[in-house]
Each structure stands twice: as structure tokens, then as C-alpha cells.
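REQUEST FORM: STRUCTURE PREDICTION
Request ID: SP-0412
Submitted by: Lab K.M.
Chain count: 1
Length (residues): 250
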Amino acid sequence: MTHLTITQLTQKPELFAFLELVVFAAFYVRATIGFGSGLISVALLSLSFPVKEVVPVVLLLDLLGSILLGAYDFRKMQWRELTWLVPGSLVGLAIGALILAHTHAQKLTLFLGIFILAYVVYAIVAKPERMPRIARAWALPLGVFGGIVGSLYGGGGPPLVAYLQMRHLDKRAFRATFQAIALTDNIVRGGLYIAFGLLTWPLTVVFAAMAPAAALGLYLGNHLHMRINQRTFLRATLALLTAVGIKYLI
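STATUS: Completed
RESULT:
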């Protein structure tokens, strides 16, 4: 397996092109529906590169995405939704780190996959635009759940997506609010990766080389986001959640 370094990538241009294409596609999806870049990037890039090298690079790319989309959608952020989501996510990140230290995380993927697919089935039956509006009090437990998932699998999207969908946010507010939580997750995990020596200078150089592809994906994906209607947006999020759920069950 090839190491994720600029030296290795310049010697194998086909891998460099593959990396650029994956990053572009992942962040095109991220801008279109607000999440999913980490899942897509890690799942595909870990086929060719060591996962311990892929995850820190993707974290930096996700941090860039969270900052750019968050700044673009800043006025649409629903700050009241973050009151309990962010603290819950921080608690969940700590709990997830403890679980990861004492349990084989792979054993927990079955439960997560079942949870995600059960939510998708419920949303399809109820129709996403007609789902009942849940109380804001659900932000704390689902924020904790999202933080745990973030620690274990590199992204706590599914529980947070479920919460924000059932709060009936429009697509811009959904995307904006999700970026605030993702940014918190990125900063905390980035600090942990630096502390444990996982985020190194050579990987930071690879991030810098991939940043233009991510930025282009965000730019073009944002154009699609502005054009699709709310119904299409909701169904796109459910389609990606279905792929996530299936991935965790396999």
C-alpha cells in the first residue's frame, strides 16, 4: 500500500489523479447536501492508502469545508439549535474516545448501521417533509450520540442529520447549522491528532495539495445546492444516509 506523501504521489501520477478526483467528488457532495465528505473520502482513499494517513488529511479538508461553507451560510445558522447540540457533541467525543481506547470500534458498527437504516425507513414511510417536529430537548442526546460516532468513525453526521431534519430546517439553515457542529468536531479531533502524533507535516503538505480540488468541489456543489428544491434535498440526504448505513452493516 502506498504511503500518502507528496513524494509517493508524484512518482505515481495515477494515484495522484485518483486522490484529486475523490476529494473533488466528496466535497461536491458536501456542498450539495451539507455533509458526507469524510465518509466518501475515507471509504475510497483507504483502499489505496493507510487509513491512519488518510483520516488526518481528510480531517484538515473537512475543516476547510466547514470554515468555507460556515462562512458562506453564516447568516442562516440556527444558533438556538446549537445550544445543546455543541455541548452534547463535546461530551460524546470524550465518551467515544474512551470507548475507542477500551473496545474494538468495529464491533459497534452493526448498531450504528441499524440505527441509520431504521431512521431512513421511518423517514421514507412518514415522508421527510411530513415528519413530526421533535422538541429541541432531543438536541442533547442526539448531540452526544453524534459525538460518540465522530470519535469512533471520524464523523458524527447521521444522528445530527436526523435531528436537524426533524427540526424541519430549510436546506440552507440545515447546511449552515451542520457546519457549526462539524467545525467543533474538526477542531477537537485535530487537537487530539496533533497530541497523538497522527497529524504530521508530510500529511499537512498533502492536504495543501488537495485543498484546490476540495475548494472546486465546494464551489460547484454550492451551485447545485442553490438550484435543487427542498424535497430533492431531503431525498438526497436520505440516499446518502442509506449508503452510510449499509457501509456500517457490511
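NOTES: The mean pLDDT is 83.
Reviewed by: T.R.
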